[in-house]
Amino acid sequence: YEESLRQNNALDFDDLLRYPLEIFKDHPEILAKYQNRWKYVLVDEYQDTNKPQFQFLKRLSKKYKKICVVGDDDQSIYGWRGAEINNILDFKKTFIGCDIFKLEKNYRSTAEILSSAYAVVRNNKRRVDKKIISHNGKGELLGLIETRDELEEADAVISALEKEIKLNKRNFNDFAILYRTNAQSRPIEDSLRRMGIPYNIVGSIRFYDRKEVKDILAYLRILNNLKDTVSLRRIINFPPRGIGVKTMDKCVVQAEKENIDLFDVLKNAKSLSIRGKQTQSLISFYKLIKKYQDLTDKLSASEISRSLIEEAGIFKLFKDSSDILDKERLENVNELLLSIDEFCKRNPGSSLKDFLQEVSLLTDIDQWNSSKNRVTLMTVHASKGLEFPVVFIAGLDEGLFPTFQSFDELDKMEEERRLFYVAMTRAEDRVFLLYSTNRRRLGSDELLGMPSRFLDEIPNEYLEKIEFQSALTRRVIVGKKTKIAITRTVTTFDDFKVGDQVKHSIFGIGEIMVLSGSGENQRVGVVFKDGTKKKLIVKYANLTKVN
What we know:
By secondary structure, the chain is an alpha/beta fold. 42% of the residues lie in helices and 17% in strands. It has a 7-stranded parallel sheet with strand order 7-8-6-9-10-5-13. A 5-stranded antiparallel sheet has the order 19-18-17-16-20. A two-stranded parallel ribbon has the order 1-2. The protein is globular.
């Protein structure tokens, strides 16, 4: 790699930091040249600088000592990628005789938000003490919402969002929903789609558009339809089986020659002019898919999915990888499996085909909704530097935010606390804090949830506890063991027709312009009075006819 860079007269990012330091060390005359050229050095976001950047600045400003940096140690949240908080905490020791000016007036957030954020971050031992004063008045209390699980949490976000729109005349782009990890977006995305609320994900990809999620769905689609050659070609070499494009091209030619389905060619791979290892891989793949295709009528979508993914080697692929991104991909795979579990609980007796049908409805619902007025979804890290009138912070469970990995290391816990401070101070007017008493993580059974320690650090005087309960029914199952199962009730709905006047809880009154499907799968295109166009799934949209 390094040789290729030299041959191309190229540098990568870390070279841009490393080589100047080497030049300054080996060629003092070059350092002097730049010290004389740039007598004044200004640095923004200084709390995010790393060690090489610090060394660069130190050498560049050594001669004239005219350096000014701006930063907030309470917003240092990139230690995991090399940022060194000591650069700002020890600035006075490094640049002896400097002056420090505390900028303590905040023009973004209300006093309630800032006081709550300060109550949390002041618990960090490594920080410069400062008390931020709001320019925007006292403001409203922070909303604290306890939910049963991540599904009810998503419903609670929608409910609070709906009330803010009605009471305070807000637009969708006034809202940001923040979470600690990307995998948490899935239940929230599902709820927004079902309600026809447009959203945008910043710094990531929509859940059902992520490669690993599309790969798993391709496996399930081919079980449902062996003629699905698009899905077949997508997964034939995932995980890697040594089956390349040329091998598949030969399979396609053979299928056309024999006038048979592409999938059936795999069974007779020995008749193809390919290597023995590839032949065996094709036959093994054929047997794997055929085995589970034969089980689709005998097992639930949940049982088939988990077993297939395990046997196909997808879990192993991500678990054994040293790539940090594969850890997130594994979380997304487990989140998809969780969504299948939820579907099976919601729809007892349903099939794999039923699940795939619902996913296709959820994934194409936005295509007609082309509004730029959208709710923003993102991780807390991605939100740094941004601001919104209303901010939801979801998943404030101990072990999720802060993460389990931070429990035994003071530095990591303090960075988690700073991350929470950043999340809170993205809000201008209102903050909603949400946690769940039961939450499924990484494909495990439900875990008993505890509220984040950060919530305990906020004085009660700043919090308004908001009671919320979504459309849940509990039923006791009596058998060998008695247990409580939670199922979601399906909202009753009318059979609509084009021209009907309907009312939606958020968008108001509109007219149905297009309609497709029937029953639970019926979709309607509605133009509301303000000109907003929405495509909605009737099953979830809670539409009512208006006489």
